[in-house]
Amino acid sequence: MDDSPTPSPPNLPPSANDVSARQWAAILHLSALAGLVIVGFGHVLGPLVIWLLKKNELPSLDAVGKNVLNFQISWSIWFLVSGVVAAIGSCLIVPLALPVGTFIAWLAFVINGAIKASNGVNVSFPLTIRFFS
Question: What pTM, to 2 d.p., does this model score?
Answer without folding.
Answer: 0.80
